[in-house]
Amino acid sequence: MLIRTGYDIAFETTAPTAMSLLLSVHPSRRNDLRSPEAIRFDPPIPQRQTLDAFGNVCTRIVAPPGRITISSDLLIADSGLPDAVAPQASQAAVDALPDEVMTYLMASRYCDTDKLTATAWQLFGQTPEGWARVQAIVDYVHRHIRFDYMQADATRSAHDGFVQRVGVCRDFAHLAIALCRCMNIPARYCTGYLGDIGVPAVPDPMDFSAWFEVYLGGRWYTFDARHNTPRIGRIVMARGRDATDCAISTSFGAARLVRFEVHTDEVTETAPAGLMRAA
């Protein structure tokens, strides 16, 4: 299947402002692109791309004073298959984990495991290790937190979400990640596109989505504590320890968000180029 996706975002600044953007499709999906991926800036400005410490494509700019619009529109191929389910996937002993995975066992800015360890073992210490334990954590978080788009809070940690019991997709991911790490299961944060493909459309504004991956059976598997069901058409943009590492935009100075639009739609593969329409 083909998915048409992109964004139209605008900021206003009062002075030249350095910004770091994670708005590109993750390199692991680059071979799936069916149209050039280009980030457009209005007004046009220089941009420089590099890979960050987690392998994400980072675009660095200096936004001029006034309004700057950042946009992209692209086609990407997808298998059309839902997230993999592997109930037999086992949990490795900590001393057997690859070195590069160990960072995803540690506390991080939004995944404050030190405040949740006792709770995690109380809740999940008797569950079977491996896939079943992760699914038990996902089921718990899915029930525990109430989704409310109007309650988004950029400072809310995993423990805050546990106490407040409300949040958006990133809060579901942070709490599930923290609980997994408390149980010695490596877990990492993901952000990207997730449209209403194969499921009934929801009335919430389209946004970038957050989910997480766990390391079981020698590979990474996708889990989503907000939706708690395998989904079709995930397009990852960034991975990291938590939302700090995967922020879509980081400004080093005042930058006020004045427009934010995201689109993700399945398209018919038979439509002529430039005339692709939503399925």
UniProtKB/TrEMBL annotation:
It comes from the Bacteria. This is Transglutaminase. PANTHER family: BLL5557 PROTEIN, BLR5614 PROTEIN-RELATED. It comes from Methylobacterium radiotolerans. InterPro entries: Papain-like_cys_pep_sf (IPR038765), Transglutaminase-like (IPR002931). Residues 161-227 form the Transglutaminase-like domain. SUPFAM superfamilies: Cysteine proteinases (SSF54001). It holds the Pfam family Transglut_core.
